Amino acid sequence: MAIRGDRGGTLRRGRTLVRSERGHVMEPMVKKEKRKLTAWVVYSKIITFWAPGFLLAKLGRMPDPNMQQAWREKIALVSLIVLICGAVVYLTIFLPITFCPEKVAQKQSDIFELNGKNGDTNVIGVQGKAYSTAQATWQSKLSFTPIPGQDLTYLFNVPIPDSCKSSSLQNFRAINFNVCAPTSGNSNPCPLGDVTSGIKTNNLKSMNDRPIGYDWSDVKNGFFVINGHVLNMTPYLLAVGSKPSTDMLDEAIFAAANKGLVDASLLFQRTPDMKAATQCLIDRFLAGELAKDTPGCFAVNLFNYAALAVIGGIVLTRFIMAVIFQYFLSWQLVRRPPRSKVRPLSYNAAAPWNGKKPQTGGATANLGKGEDDELFTVMLVTCYSEGEDSIRGTCDSLCNTDFSDARKVLFIVADGIITGHGNDRSTPDICVGLIEQEESFKDPQPCSYLAVAAGSKQHNMAKVYCGYYRVGNRRTPTLVIVKCGAPTEQTAAKPGNRGKRDSQMILMNFFSRVIYNDRMAPLDYDLFRKMHHLTNQTPDIFEIVLMVDADTKVYPDSLRLLVNCMHNDKLIMGLCGETKIANKRDSWVTAIQVFEYYISHHLSKAFESVFGGVTCLPGCFCMYRLKAPKDNGWVPILTKPEICQEYSQNVVETLHERNLLLLGEDRFLTTLMLRNFPGRKMMFMPQAICKTVVPDEFKVLLSQRRRWINSTVHNLMELVLVRNLCGAFCLSMQFSIFLDLVGTVALPVAIVLTYILIVRACMTTYNSVSAYLPLAMLIMVLFLPAVLIFITTRKWIYVAWMFVYLLALPIWNLVLPTYAYWHFDDFSWGETRKVSGEGKDKGHGDEGGSFDASTVPMKRWEDYERKRLRSIKRKERKEIDDSSSYQLPLVDDSANAGLLKNSVEDSMYYESHPGYSFLGDSSTASMNDSSNATLGNNYRGQPAMVSHRQQQQQQHYEMQSYPPGAAQADSYYSQGQPGLQYNAYEDYGAQQQQQHPAAGGGDGGLQYAAYDDYSESQQQMDYGQQGAYSSQQQPQQQQPSRQRPGGPRDYR
């Protein structure tokens, strides 16, 4: 029996994988193996046949074939959007015109129903038209009182109409038969005289030619229907007697009138003469119209009612479920968790840094400094071109949160050596200047890592500054990562810049490799040591990451509320809070965004939270699990290798892939999480609040929404294919996503149709309940959010913001989407983040050049640590040899190899480029030469090329050269199972420890030398193939390794 807490006790949602075919593994959204010719490519070429390649190259300034194909795919997408919009327009406007013309519809709406069903009783019918008898002066007294709408045509003398004078009809008795001729039983059958003069003489008032309407139940003996016209043949039947003549028309009349054949339309269509006689009968004996819609009108009305029911149902359902979530579900999640839901902190017990005799206290040190229900959290702040006030305000708000400093780390990433527009210092200078640096790590060296880019820019380098961020009495451990770029790009405009996704991947890759004890890049090892130094905790104990933009301020209780949600529902893998606008009154551009932000959170995200499927966690303020507890172990979430691999794709070729990866990384990450973990939840918590700065100029808003809208369309196209999301049929998350997708692409015509509906509502004559339905729907769609405002915030100022938003609807629904769709092939960030002196960017990941995987060595943590300890040991020996005054006791690290040592203050850095050093001699330009130089100048320092022997003498640590391809791995993450291919290495290490239990002096050196020889040969065996981190190769499958205690269980 499942434990209630493990299943998410608040929402009580069970498994959704109820069908076997839903359990399939989703294909990656970005495939490495590209198919050159697909149906989509063929369609794009067909739809743009009129634009050959040479014409695009000459006139369109698109010489690159990839640019040309992106343009063709844009035209293909726009054509599909036009088709969808055209279908919406046709179904809304032209469908009624096609199947229910206005003349027919107007006629039905004006019908006066028999028996006074419309409410007026002083009405009769003459030749199918309604006449009022309120002022009638009957010239001949009637022997009966007519019922409302009764046909009195037979009391008038109706002349033979022209339609009956055709020579081909003269053989039919009913055509010229005079029903007003005296008979033996009735000397005056037509007492009211000629029909035209009789109407005037008897003072009958016409009712604007309104027809008399008959229901099917009103058509009795003597009456029948032809093509919707009701004919009263009673006078003719009484005059001719009970037997028909021998002509075909009489037979049809008697059959229809006396045998209960109500609808005789087909009976009178047998011959051309019968068809011609039909019009004659209608002109002579018409009693009224059938008060029923024609089949076309019936189908149109049925469609309209169904559409109104669906739209109204969706609007009301979203509203009701959003209110239920706000009032009942969200409060259960944010409350302080009971002790029963607080689990012990999790860490990788099998990792080498969690040995039996850790000299630093291990992974359980200093736990008493924080509350038991406070999970270890990393607060990621990504910076690009923001100013000092903005970055400082964000960091102040994070450090002032109601959360222990012992349980959180501030993780700031500066994306390149960049000076923002209007700033007097570079972004790295600003970020580093905010912290109190640790003396032992005050002058960091650049470390290599594999960046999210294409070509040569896959190799990037970054400096890691560590220290503490002080605000008031708070002192928060802080890491500042400055992406400074490889040596070859120091003269470029923005060295080190790789985009926000790359900044996030630094953190995600680091924790993924720590959790699995996988091979690390030099930057990962540097982060490991400095994070452990600051927190006295190994990084594998961290469970949560809070992602915040550098222009966002978080409310003091937001972090704790979000962590409470993680405690209360173990199935939650991602969260976001409400984002409010900090500069709402700066301009009209900010004013029109206030209500849009409000409604997107409190209506859209609140509704999606009921299903546990929020489709977009805003990158400015969201939280993810690095790993999640399950049973007695844990499972990776954000650090799952498949997530990291797909999110770090660097080769994007198609238009779809570029819109996914280059424009909206926050929505793309949310889509990845929902696809990989459809049984878990993405939630919105309205109680956790932040404030952010929004664009205050229209050109910046236009650029931002162009990226957001295009990213939304392409991500929804991926999510709509996920079949195992929560719900079923129309009450499913998949159906909701489909409606969002259609609604998004149809926004331009939706606003046009809205205004058409408003105009029609003002011109409509409301004489029935159905006439009010479109107006009621319009009012509900536009003003129901005002009710939500009262229920959720009770701040009536938002009603004023709502009217501002409604006035700007043409901008939101017409201008912005149309601009975005036409710029599907624009992958730049445009005006959103301006850099001083920068032109229009082309997006990340499209750089040329080749990438050498050997420039980024990948080693296990043990290898780095042993190398560091060995370097320290050699340094001590060299000092002893130089002094020759005393003998230092030899230290045996074979037993403690792989353990952290806080007593060591020297940091170990490994060069990632053979023959390259960041530390030159006095004759070269050193990167940390002058304390007066700015950080920006230091980052741009040129390397000194020195020999291997010189580096050993000057830097006192060993420099290793790697053969080409040696640093390339077999798989992306070795599938998270390092045990198999390292069995030989582990067995060898155990044998060495047994053979040399107390190695010292030269023996110890021999032991390390033997280990080094073996390690390099083993590394070449592991790395021999073309590179793991080369984006052109698929991960290879490996055999499963033995289960490590405390290791990953499964991915569900």
Automatic annotation (TrEMBL):
It comes from the Eukaryota. This is Uncharacterized protein. The lineage of its organism: Eukaryota, Fungi, Fungi incertae sedis, Zoopagomycota, Kickxellomycotina.
